[in-house]
């Protein structure tokens, strides 16, 4: 199509030249082809290479013949018309034989070729330079996630780094990151998994701060599981890293007055959480949700879904999840200035419970060699589909596959409540640090 347009423009340029047509027949086409040949067509692959070859051929032909007196006659016009026709026919023939050219243009920058890097396809490799911090030296790491302090004897789980299949994740350089974040507001929104990633990022960044007292919780709050707002200020660099607890992202509330007795509360799938207005004035937003979308935390607690003023008692959890994510997407599109704010959504995190009711938790000493079916999640699929259909840019941090291998990295019984095993949350340092390394690689590269 573009080559056809190019031929049409060439012909139009010829017809619109001024009265000094002998001069124009020489200058106009040469300038046009020079301009075309200087464009970065090669970045479009074989399609661009074809265009470059054709332009080069045309330029040589013009230089060889346009200076001759033949172009002062009707024969010159016929030759030039033939050249323009050649561009049109050659271009359209190419599109007919290679119809993928149009898709190359549309998908430019998001190609799935082997030369592109999908950081979420890869494997875990041993790396003795890890961990990147000591949780005991970080006042913002919860005691419950510090597995070594809570009695874990082996330390092998700390020595693993994620290696993408076709590229490398840039090594964490704390001083460069601190400068990149200077003057910015980074906000995590979601459940306790989001809080874990928030704690991880703060601990990573504190390794580059000389005066640890310059890093403090803005309101003087202690790190707890239930508080809805936690904000840490890096005063030397004038930026903050904030966490908002919003486990569903949409608005929980009371059930309608005339609803069934079993409905004690409802989840308004068409309304964002009431604290969402506090998320708007941010430079980086990282969302997650999923672990509270279960029967035990919804229906068995008397919580049902609501749209408008009506309860949706028969609505399935996946359908409700998709409805809530669409509400989130619409809110991003209307409330967030994505020219300023980078938006990320982390996919569902793999857990390693076993048993019919997921009541058994066994933490291994090493990562699994195969994901054993945990590399996919219906929630992650919904997240990726919703983000794909958004009208504004957002990035999915698709961590589901990489977490599927790490049955060795969960808290297990090495928490502040060892009587309650935990195969959902991760030890710190650990897997969430890799999430943040990937997040920072996006921010530092600008991609």
Question: Could you characterize the architecture of this molecule?
Answer:
The chain is α/β, with parallel strands linked by helices. Strand 5 and strand 6 form a beta hairpin. It is built from 11 helices and 17 strands. It has 2 domains: 105 residues, no CATH class; 324 residues, no CATH class. Helix 8 packs parallel to helix 9. The strands form 5 sheets. The chain has a 7-stranded mixed sheet, sandwiched between helices.
Q: What would a concise description of this structure say?
A:
With 447 residues, this protein is α/β, with parallel strands linked by helices.
Key descriptive features of the protein:
2 domains; alpha/beta; 11 helices; seven-stranded mixed β-sheet; 34% helix; four-stranded mixed β-sheet; 447 residues
Contiguous uncertain segments of 5+ residues: 1-55, 59-74, 76-80, 92-114
The percent range for helix content is: 25-40%
Q: State the order of secondary-structure elements, H for helix, E for strand.
A: HHHHHEEHEHEEEEEEEEHEEEHEHEEH
Number of extended strands: 17
* Quaternary status: single chain
Structural class of the secondary elements? Answer: alpha/beta
Q: Helical segment tally?
A: 11
Radius of gyration, taken over Cα atoms and rounded to an integer in Å:
29 Å
Q: Whole-Å distance between the termini?
A: 29 Å
Mean pLDDT, to the nearest integer, reads 81
Shape category: globular
**Beta-strand content:** 15-25%
**Strand line-up in the sheet with most strands:** 4-5-6-3-9-12-15
- Profile the largest sheet: 7 strands, mixed
The figure for the number of domains is 2
